[in-house]
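Sanity check

After download, print the first record. It should look like this:
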Amino acid sequence: MTLSPARELVAASGVTDAAAALARGEIVLVAGEAGAALVAAAGLVTGETARFLAAHGGPVGCALPGTWLDRLRIPAMVPGSDVHVGVGHGSPARTLRALADPATRREDFRVPGPVFPTRTRELGVLERPGLAEAAVDLARIAGREPVAAFVELDAAADGLLWVTVSEVAAYRRARERLVERAADARLPLAYGGFRALGYRDLVDGGEHVALVHGEPGRGSVVRVHMECPAGDAFGARHCGCAQAVRDSLDEITRAGSGVLVYVRGRRSLWSTLTGHRVPDGRTDHVAGQILRDLGVDD
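Expected structure tokens:
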């Protein structure tokens, strides 16, 4: 990819640098498992920026939350369709800036036009690890409206500051609240008395539980268990999950204090019965936030 001197960008070093570049009106590259995209903050797009995007990725898209599209009553892009959205004199730059302007109204747009709007999930990459979601998240992190211009590429381009979708997700998980305490009950068990604290997952609405014994703090026994219906409920022999839970509760009771964090999974019940669990970074982040809420080092 050839860049003019005015658009010369340096190599990458993470989400913070990528967001800062967007805040300056520059273009960054976002890479994911399904490909890569050039991204710019829609509210700062100039004619030069729009032409650069179109020249290196085809029709310019605009990623924005469903709430923004619903307010404007604008149809989102449907794969395989010819739906475009435009504003002004057919200028992609003016279209993008208008889509990022909270004061814009439906009558300011004409259909069809030069820009493809793409509806993103409300919780961004934490809900769906897509290029469009990462583009909107980066625009928000940059302090701009959650609206981003983007064009998908078939391959990564050299010379651009870049960041990955997984890095954007990790950045958000480390800085944003993922769970909230929703329930509190006493739970007498064969091992001793426990306090069951329920947590609601703010990303997918799931529910997690922390079983607390005594007054846990620094140095207390901490165990994390990811949901396994096959072992936890039915005692399946292909895993040792049920025994692991029993051992953890016994260890915590003998120590006098501690926490067992039980993290619900996202997989269907049937899939958990027919295969082993697959741990992911989400489990660690959810458990870590629960433990911090309890004042226990993880």
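If your output differs, re-run the checksum step. Summary of this record's structure: DSSP finds ten helices and twelve strands in the chain.
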